[in-house]
Specification:
Elements: E1 3-8, H1 14-28, E2 32-37, E3 51-55, H2 69-76, E4 84-91, H3 97-108, E5 112-120, H4 125-138
Parallel strand pairs: 1-2, 1-3, 3-4, 4-5
Helix pairs in contact: 1-4
Length: about 140
Amino acid sequence: MSKVAVVYWTGSGNTQAMADQVRAGAEGAGAAVDEIFADQFTAADVAKYDAFAFGCPAMGDEVLEEGTFQPMWDEVKSSLSGKSVGLFGSYGWGSGQWMEDWKSDAQSAGAQVVGTVIANNAPDDAGCEECRSLGARLA
């Protein structure tokens, strides 16, 4: 059985709703899953998992949340080389450029990005299904 970490930051609850769906998809596909808030995850935790889903909404000028998530991401990304990673998050403005930039950053660190999911504000039914599918691919 694979072990998946779903690591996220949320401000309004939209990205947490997505994390819950990613978890459901991974568990439904037979994985053991830990859902972890970003301030509770470090590079030392990477070795405990087979795959990872990271979730963060777009903030400011389409960037990752800078107080908690970005520092965690900067610490762990070099440990993700060769690992399966999914990325997800919500946004309320812009075009989703933050996700494209984040995906490129993850790939530059050597992560095998298996998919991304973005939702404009709260995920709708289709967005929830995309999140569950992402979780299943990580399982």
